[in-house]
DUF6922 domain-containing protein (Flavobacterium algoritolerans), 103 residues
Amino acid sequence: MKPLTKYIPNLHPKFFWDFRFDSIDWDGGYKMVIARIVERGGQDQIDEIVRFYGREKVITSIRDEIFFLPNYAIENALKFFPELKKEEMYCYLNRKDKPYHWI
């Protein structure tokens, strides 16, 4: 029986400097991968995660599943995916620097 070939996205290990690159769970850790690339990657890396995970999964993850992105990464996500709205993104709604009513 042939061993299963492990497909991984074509991303540079520098984006995952704090992980052992050859042991990343690309399927189970998709939220971490997508968040890391949105935060630190460019258009080529965004295109690669869209190719690997599919556009719908990437958009759904950014909008509904990723708990934190810094403000500049939220702006990057809006630039890369114009169909996203900041007010619908969980990471935007979950920010600690948003104003709260004290009354």
About this structure: Residues 30-40 form the longest helix (11 residues). The chain is about 45% helix and 0% strand. Helices lie at 30-40, 43-53, 55-65, 71-80, 90-93.
